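Human:
Care to share another protein and its fold?

Assistant:
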Amino acid sequence: MDAVVILLLGLSCLLLLSLWRQRSGKGKLPPGPTPLPIIGNILQIDTKNITKSLTNFSKVYGPVFTLYFGMKPTVVLHGYEAVKEAMIDHGEDFVGRGSFPIAEKIDKGLGVIFSNGNIWKETRRFSLMTLRNFGMGKRSIESRIQEEAHFLVEELRKTQGSPCDPTSILGCATSNVICSIIFQNRFDYNNQNFLAMTKKVNENAKILSSPWMQVYNALPALIHYLPGSHKTIIQNRDYVGSYILEKIKEHEESLDVNNPRDFIDCFLIQMKKENKNDMLAFTYENLTVTINDLFGAGTETTSSTLRHALLLLMKHPEVTVKVQEEIDRVIGRHRSPCMQDRSHMPYTDAVLHEVQRYIDLVPTSLPHAVTRDLQFRNYNIPKGTTVLISLTSVLRDEKEFPRPETFDPGHFLDDSGQFKKSNYFMPFSIGKRICAGEALARMELFLFLTTILQNFNLKSVVDPKNLDATATVNGLVSVLPSYQACFIPV
């Protein structure tokens, strides 16, 4: 009986605390739907399609509104003007990384994606500098991608035109590019450790977008100790992390401070330099998390975009024909595509941009946070408040893109058929937290896709009209249903 009384008292205290915290913010934060005690607005949100819910809320409360995921308020920015004003005009105020409980549990505030403050600044600065030194955005990394594109083509040839799910092959290709920078070498597409790691990265992306994880992130204290897929995420990260630790030890044993071979060497050298400066960014733990971040981001987002692109091209064969005609005209069949070709291929460039716009891969980007008490559009936003930016609302803006729900490369072409830039194109997010690997991803998307279409015709196993390119889940990322394709040698 005493235990029941204690439990009821505890729940009552939580309820009163929730009500007090939510009411204390009223009149200061932007408007929004009334939250329930403890769980907030989670029952009013479609956890399978968060962006649809955000759009509906914006119609009622405007472009800046507040939602409660559990007891914590989250300010949502919806539409180009609000997003630009916050992330560009007030970029320094919104540079923090917002609450993401599962990542906080795994990464412990380290790495380049979910860190904050000096650790984030130092890790991002070092990572960008090192990636550029190893060729990101330059000719040297272009040759690595071209080499990997050759291996990709050879792997696709092995299918002999039979139906296959391209997920694993594309994951290996994109992962090998980032691996060549981090670990110095690439991996064979049949390497079991390599396949296991790319599989676990892909699995984590799906889990992070699941309705269960949206509930977990809203109520982590209640759910963390329960069984569920959040345990799988932790296990998968530990698996990849243990492999990374092995590689770090191997690098330490053969390190030449005068001749760094890759990202790990550069980080280890920096650790020795900063040893006496008490720099928390340069530790073994932060190195492991940072590599995990780079490996995951460098593998999953680009391979998912390519997988979406192939599906859309099969669904729209008339678009594929035009791209291949442009490839024949500009590149031909006897040399590899290079980045200089892109400026002479406006239609292909438009197709790549439209793929990224249409698939809306990361609908709300990653959560931001304000770094100081802030007045924004006459609302008071306390320091540390999580901020979500709806990239969907920008990428699907009908004023900029007349048919936002339709896949149409014409959105990025002018009347004369030349490529047309758009300020609304922000699939890599926007502001000071923009994706560090944007330049690398752009090169991979162009070189891999043009190389595939130079060597193969795509064939669907079903009528193209019946192909479904709609994401099955729209959470952290847009998850595409599995499909099979035939790669018919040209």
About this structure: DSSP finds 17 helices and eleven strands in the chain. Confidence is low (pLDDT under 50) at residues 3-26.
